[in-house]
Write a structure and sequence with these properties.
Layout: H1 34-51, E1 65-70, H2 76-87, E2 91-96, H3 108-116, E3 122-127, H4 132-137, E4 143-149, H5 155-169, E5 176-180, H6 187-198, E6 202-206, H7 216-220, E7 228-231, H8 234-238, E8 243-246, H9 251-254, H10 262-269, H11 273-278, E9 283-285, H12 298-301, H13 308-333
Parallel strand pairs: 1-2, 1-3, 3-4, 5-6, 5-8, 6-7, 8-9
Bound molecules: N-carbamoyl-L-aspartate.
Length: about 325
């Protein structure tokens, strides 16, 4: 980073930082090189400082218009993006599918093209269909940022997780990270798998057999074969582990129940206070929303070694970083 993103104005273009990200859009972290992930995290650290100032905004995206297209319920991701955009002084428009022309039958393509005709620069999209953000890149000229698409990817979540881990340990390489729960339906797990293996962590996937991916090779390719292992036993996943990342059970994506009962799930895969007492250095993370008493015992959610609220704060900084770097990329990729 040659300039300070926290003070410089991208739009006026007085100085042109070489952000040099390889991708024009952020559709997923599959294929993102470690240098680009590191650049996002380093820039996010600078924006994280802005969030601690009395006046928490910078003029970096003044004159840039961002549309948040949220086709799926979301609280923290939507608010986090909106805050990030506002902290960067972008012009922000929010679009939700209910109460809009979508409920009158308009297609995603038509909605996007109509919004773009009003002159916008960036689109942040959440959609229940995997591939919707990629489809959008073929319909509009704006930069597209994926805020979660079906069970495919949720790249900004994995970036904020990576930032939180790096903040805690000073590195990601060599750490042992367990991702626990509904791996199969989780876009958070997919994006984290790509990011964490690229950054050199060792990942253990743990959950009921019915919620684990069958073809890991197909998901990750050859590169991560030695870095990822799978187990159905929680103790095996937690033993020697630095970070336990619990995932929400995605009832809405399962279609039918893939495990006997929530109580049984909690007994076998829920992280309990005893785990934190047994594994003294273990750190717990969760992307939210947490089902207390299911993925995490309620006293684990509030434990000092649970970083859930740090993740939320870092989410704003990471999204500021992504928006800032990708907005600048508009010029480089134009
Ligand atoms: C995640 C999501 O929506 O994919 N939540 C989030 O973005 N904070 C995880 C989840 O819904 O379980």
């Amino acid at each position: 980073m040659t300039t300070d993103p926290a003070s410089e104005n991208v739009q006026e273009g007085t100085s042109e930082p070489d952000t040099g990200l390889r991708h024009r859009h952020l559709l997923g972290l599959e294929g993102w090189p470690s240098e680009d992930i590191t650049r996002v995290l380093d820039t996010a650290v600078q924006f994280r400082e802005v969030l601690d100032r009395p006046i928490r905004s910078v003029p970096s995206l003044r004159g840039v218009t961002v549309v948040n297209l949220f086709y799926e319920p979301s609280t923290r991701t939507r608010i986090s993006f909106e805050l990030a955009e506002k902290r960067l002084s972008a012009d922000v428009v929010n679009f939700g599918s209910s109460g809009s022309s979508v409920s009158k039958g308009e297609t995603l393509r038509d909605t996007a093209r109509n919004i773009e005709a009003m002159k916008i620069d960036m689109v942040v999209v959440r959609h229940s269909s995997a591939g919707a953000p990629s489809f959008l890149t073929r319909c509009v000229n704006a930069v597209v940022i994926n805020a979660g698409d079906g069970a495919h990817e949720h790249p900004t979540q994995a970036l904020l997780d990576a930032m939180t881990i790096r903040q805690q340990f000073g590195r990601i390489r060599g750490l042992r990270i367990a991702i626990i729960g509904d791996i199969m339906h989780s876009r958070v797990a997919r994006s984290n798998l790509h990011a964490l293996t690229t950054m050199g962590a060792e990942v253990t996937l743990c959950g009921p057999a019915s919620l684990l991916p069958v073809h890991l090779d197909r998901l990750l390719g050859e590169k991560a074969r030695g870095q990822v292992r799978i187990t159905t036993r929680l103790e095996e996943a937690l033993d020697g582990c630095d970070v336990a990342m619990a995932l929400r059970i995605q009832m809405e994506r399962q279609g039918r129940s893939l495990f006997p009962s929530v109580r049984e799930y909690h007994e076998q895969f829920g992280i309990q206070l005893e785990h934190l007492e047994k594994y003294k250095d273990l750190i717990v993370m969760h992307p939210g929303p947490v089902n207390r008493g299911v993925e995490l015992a309620t006293d684990v959610v509030d434990h000092e070694r649970a970083l859930i609220l740090n993740q939320v704060t870092n989410g704003v900084a990471v999204r500021m970083s992504v928006l800032y770097l990708m907005a600048d990329g508009r010029k480089q990729h134009a």
